[in-house]
Design goal:
Blueprint: E1 3-4, E2 8-12, H1 18-25, H2 42-55, E3 64-70, E4 73-83, E5 86-93, H3 102-116, E6 122-128, H4 132-140, E7 144-152, E8 159-168
Parallel strand pairs: 5-6
Antiparallel strand pairs: 1-2, 2-3, 3-4, 4-5, 6-8, 7-8
């Protein structure tokens, strides 16, 4: 599967992406608002990429973990987990690529796929309440904030306010 936008190509993330994946998925600053990142070890990062590859073998596909490619370079990822007409999305970029609209462009392409191909009627995304760029991105995607709750990080980062955003057809 491959999705194309004006500037980007989205394709399944794979083990061969390990070096460029580590650049963002093991970076504490980039992942400060991510619930299940950063990875602490290369073995953990490799296991995640292997799990992503395995998801592509399931029927139906259990999760769409897409590498965001810019001019042949892997700069981040966008994900979609569909279930019964709904889906949850997420995204992350290498910090060198922040602020250029790539995450929004990639998320919009995967969102369009979810709606037009998978038939999703509702798409949700979550963010740490301190993550203003993600909040703005969700709003650009036409999502509305629908809930505020507590997010508990599985490591020593404690708790924070978490926002849930949704888009509905």
């Amino acid at each position: 599967m491959e999705l194309r936008t004006e500037r980007l190509i989205l394709r399944p993330v794979c083990v061969q992406d390990m070096d460029t994946y580590k650049a963002y998925a093991m970076d504490a600053e980039t992942c400060r608002y991510m619930l299940f990142l950063p990875h602490k070890t290369e073995a953990e990062a490799l296991a995640e990429l292997q799990a992503c590859e395995a998801n592509w073998q399931k029927e139906p596909i259990a999760g769409y973990e897409m590498a965001i490619m810019l001019d042949g370079r892997h700069i981040g990822g966008v994900s979609l987990i569909p279930a019964e007409g709904k889906a949850v999305m997420g995204w992350i970029l290498n910090k060198a690529c922040h602020g250029k609209g790539y995450a929004c462009e990639a998320a919009r392409a995967l969102m369009d796929y979810a709606v037009n191909v998978l038939g999703c009627q509702c798409i949700a995304a979550y963010c740490d309440g301190r993550n203003l760029p993600s909040q703005r991105l969700m709003e650009k995607l036409g999502m509305q904030r629908v809930r505020e709750q507590t997010r508990t990080y599985p490591d020593d980062r404690g708790t924070a306010v978490e926002y849930k955003y949704e888009w509905r057809r």
